[in-house]
Amino acid sequence: MKHPAPEQLQRYLAGETDLVQTEELTEHLARCSTCGEALALLAADDAALSGSLSLTEAEAAWIAETDLTEPVRRAIAAPRVGIQQLLLGLLIIVPGAYMLQTLTGLIADLVSARGPFALTVNLLRAGTPYLWETLEYLFNGGLLASLWPLFALGAAAWLWRRFTKEEQIHA
Amino acid sequence: MDEQHAIHRCLEGDKEAFAAIVGQYQAQVLALCLRMTGNREDAADTAQQAFVQAYRHLDRYDPHQPFRPWLFKIATNQCIGLLRRRKHQSVTLEEGRIESVPDPEGGAASLIDLAEDRERVRRAVAELPLNYRTVVVQYYFQQLSYQEIARQTGLSIGTISTHLHRAKQLLRRWLADEEVGTGEAPRTRTASALSGR
After folding, report:
1. pTM score, two decimals?
2. Banded model confidence at residue B109, pLDDT cuts 50, 70, 90
């Protein structure tokens, strides 16, 4: 008499055998007490596992009082910074920093009375000497012009905060 | 708001509509994650991540299929990922390299006979290798059929049956050893159970 493997008995117990296998196993179990006992043990194990894995009262209570709605809502609402946002940031920051550098150069020309602003600036400088000396120091020394990388970083930081700031949850 | 309507609105960009889905399934997902991870903190974390991942990949959900198995598959994968990162599991047993776990000296005693209470059985299940634990939880806790487990895990019916059988052998061995009082740690038990020592 060929006895079925334990895995086969397990499948028989679970109703996962096909018609032919089911018939053969049923006939065998009717004749073989050893396999009948093995099947009974498998059934007892199944009942033990099902019962043991069911939720306890404490676990059911914990689940009932746990609400994931708000944490999930917050996690979903937080925008994700992807490659698109980073590229957009670079496209804004790099030309913007260059434009700022150009602007500071223009202001330096203005203050130093170079180029087309010479007459106007000379008249203003005559009237406000201390102010113009300060501006000359700042711009001719290249101080502000050399600060444009800091402006670029500041713009990047602002963009980062803009993209990672949580959306307002509207009621 | 019914489930499919909520999903449709989520796909249109209404994030608030997903709250209805969370409310509907959070108890079941939490229960599954609790059984898989074995503790409440990890269960809450993985359940939350499961919903977030489900929302982010909602465009991949086939509306012609039921939503619950799809969501539970995500939750199971989150739990598996967490447990693998934590490395709390004994080595994952790969098919083809496993010798049959020898039957313990416990003989014909059932699991509940060997374990004096259900808590011991639960603790023992929590120590099973990850691939066995997943199938045990899906079959005995979620009450899924072999076909449903096969769809979720990609395993064959035969493999599922083998996993269940060997999981029970391991549990029987551990619980019998506890009766005798060997004092072995579960991870040690897994290796020794497999080698027949």
Report:
1. 0.65
2. low
